[in-house]
């Protein structure tokens, strides 16, 4: 899947088929996180790949915003060091995992953003790290409407050259060129 198509169509998935994630796909998902850039290349993270069903059930039980972790065949706990850019860097890594998974037909959703202290003893996370998120992965249990997103109009959230200046859309190609200048 083309990168822009993956970004355009990715959706949050909270229900998974009872179907394992192939080891090579799981490795690509984690590798997507590992290869993500970070401030000053500090890489202030540690990723814990989880495929043990009992551990997944335990994580689902402690994650208030994500009990569906318990039904996922695979998850990645994202741990961070206490550094100024760790949350930003780890967030980038999570998005890389989500898009990598989606490009292979695997759905996911970010769980947490803190409040996951209960995961530390389950996963053996040392005291010097925090569990920022747990990201469950699985094949969607039902068809997902790829690309149907409710978003504010582009003109409300994107300006050209200075705030409030309209982004003129002369064609899809021109729009993509303009969008690339913001990347």
Number of helices: 7
**Share in β-strands:** 5-15%
Distance between the termini: 20 Å
Number of beta strands:
5
Order of helices and strands: HHEHEHEEHEHH
Reported for the largest beta sheet, the result is: 5 strands, antiparallel
Estimate percent helicity.
25-40%
Q: What's the rounded overall pLDDT mean?
A: 91
Low-confidence stretches: none
Q: Would you tell me the structural class of the helices and strands?
A: alpha+beta
What form results from the Cα inertia axes?
Answer: globular
**What is the radius of gyration computed over CA atoms, rounded to a whole number of angstroms?**
18 Å
Question: How is this structure best described in words?
Answer:
- The chain has 7 helices and 5 strands.
- The chain starts with a helix and ends with a helix.
- The model has no long low-confidence stretch (mean pLDDT 91).
- It is an alpha+beta fold.
- Strands 1, 2, 3, 4 and 5 form a 5-stranded antiparallel sheet that branches.
- Helix 2 packs antiparallel against helix 4 (86-102).
């Amino acid at each position: 899947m083309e990168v822009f198509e993956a970004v355009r169509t990715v959706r949050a998935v909270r229900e998974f088929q009872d179907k394992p994630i192939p080891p090579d796909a799981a490795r690509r998902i984690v590798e997507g996180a590992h290869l993500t850039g970070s401030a000053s290349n500090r890489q202030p993270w540690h990723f814990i790949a989880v495929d043990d069903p009992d551990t997944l059930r335990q994580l689902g039980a402690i994650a208030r915003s994500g009990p569906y972790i318990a039904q996922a065949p695979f998850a990645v706990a994202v741990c961070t060091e206490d550094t100024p850019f760790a949350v930003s860097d780890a967030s980038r890594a999570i998005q890389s995992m989500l898009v990598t998974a989606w490009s292979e037909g695997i759905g996911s959703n970010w769980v947490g953003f803190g409040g996951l202290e209960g995961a530390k003893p389950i996963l053996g996370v040392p005291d010097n790290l925090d569990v920022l998120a747990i990201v469950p992965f699985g094949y969607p249990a039902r068809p997902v409407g790829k690309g149907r997103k409710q978003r504010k109009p582009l003109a409300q959230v994107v300006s050209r050259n200075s705030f409030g200046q309209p982004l003129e859309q002369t064609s899809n190609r021109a729009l993509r060129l303009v969008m690339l200048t913001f990347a």
